[in-house]
Amino acid sequence: MSAVIEIEGLRKTFHGPHRSRQVAVDGFDLLVGRGEIHGFLGPNGSGKTTTLRALLGLVRADGGRMRLFGEDVPRHQARVAGRVGAIVETPQFFGNFTGHRTLRLLALAGGVPPRRVDEVLEQVGLRGRGQDQVRGYSLGMRQRLAVASALLKEPELLILDEPANGLDPAGIREMRDLMRDLAAAGVTVLLSSHILGEIQLICDHVTIISAGRRVATGPVEQVLAGHDQHEWRVGVPEPERAAGLLRRAGLAVDEHAGHLVVGGAPDGGEISRLLGEQGLWVRELVPLRPDLESVFLELTGDSPDPDLPRQVDGAALAGPGGGPLIDLDVTVGGTREVGA
Ligand SMILES: Nc1ncnc2c1ncn2[C@@H]1O[C@H](COP(=O)(O)OP(=O)(O)OP(=O)(O)O)[C@@H](O)[C@H]1O
């Protein structure tokens, strides 16, 4: 596998007023291979945005090593900048510009041929709305416009921080289809999100971060399999007698109204045999596979809270007078809440 992103031992501490310190990233590792759609999961405040910002040269790391396409960054950021499209935080756009004009200006600024504007509008499904003012766009359309801006340069790597944030289910589905189309076209995608079900549906690989450290990584199926407790939902007459019998056979049993949950049984046939031998005929035997949500909760002990305010220092990239800013390679929004 040729690696597109390599991060080893990344560390970053923020220093606030009164000597307060906030360790945001604490020796974090990340490896993303070419062509992957890689999910980057973690609870609020676990260090996702800081990691992405460090990787993009928007914040200076205290330690560790980062490479993009094999080039050390931030040292050689300029060499790879044209190959990376990124959206970190909800981008801001000028409301009275049309989507088309917004992208045309960005294309001009970035030396991108104007024909790309129509191409990316088509790609993100905004072609029919390109001549409408951005102020009339829904949140989902703004997100797509942001992705379009990141795609102008035909990047080989797309980094998106919470692209599905605030989208309704239809918007999320559209975003998912777009990610899949991009991956099919050979683009590597790194996607941070707290929408675990979506990550499971969209991504082939995942890395989970908790308190600034990596707690799991690998192909989604492998990460899930590593947390399979071999549990089964079992429907059986005389559940109390059945539970006692299974416990005596060394299995973990939880009794629920109308069914049992039996753990520690890699082979469901074993449950059925144990019960059948005692005249208890199983009427339901369903494997309970872990999903990313249960793995995430087990590993991080936290549940992602979509409503918590985000804490990101966007000042370095704010436009004049703190106004909206759009950068061709990196689009950053959000408010500064240092030491809050
Ligand atoms: N500019 C800053 N100044 C001070 N502390 C910061 C700054 N940026 C981030 N932090 C702190 O660093 C930690 C990691 O924040 P970060 O934004 O990277 O987490 P996150 O995983 O992206 O969270 P979320 O999902 O809420 O965006 C948090 O405790 C946060 O408060």
How would you describe this structure in keywords?
340 residues, alpha/beta, Rossmann fold, Alpha-Beta Plaits, four-stranded antiparallel sheet, elongated, disordered C terminus, binds adenosine-5'-triphosphate, ABC-2 type transport system ATP-binding protein
Structure description:
The chain is an alpha/beta fold. It has two domains: 3-226, Rossmann fold; 231-288, Alpha-Beta Plaits. The chain has helices at 48-55, 77-80, 99-109, 115-123, 139-151, 169-184, 196-202, 220-225, 239-248, 268-276, 292-300, and strands at residues 3-15, 21-33, 37-41, 63-68, 71-73, 84-88, 157-161, 188-193, 205-210, 213-219, 231-235, 252-256, 259-263, 284-288, 330-332. The strands form three sheets. The chain has a seven-stranded mixed β-sheet with strand order 10-9-3-8-7-6-15, with helices on both faces. The chain has a four-stranded antiparallel β-sheet with strand order 2-1-4-5. A four-stranded antiparallel β-sheet has the order 12-13-11-14, covered by helices on one side. Helix 3 (99-109) packs across helix 4 (115-123) and helix 4 (115-123) crosses helix 5 (139-151). Belongs to the ABC transporter superfamily.
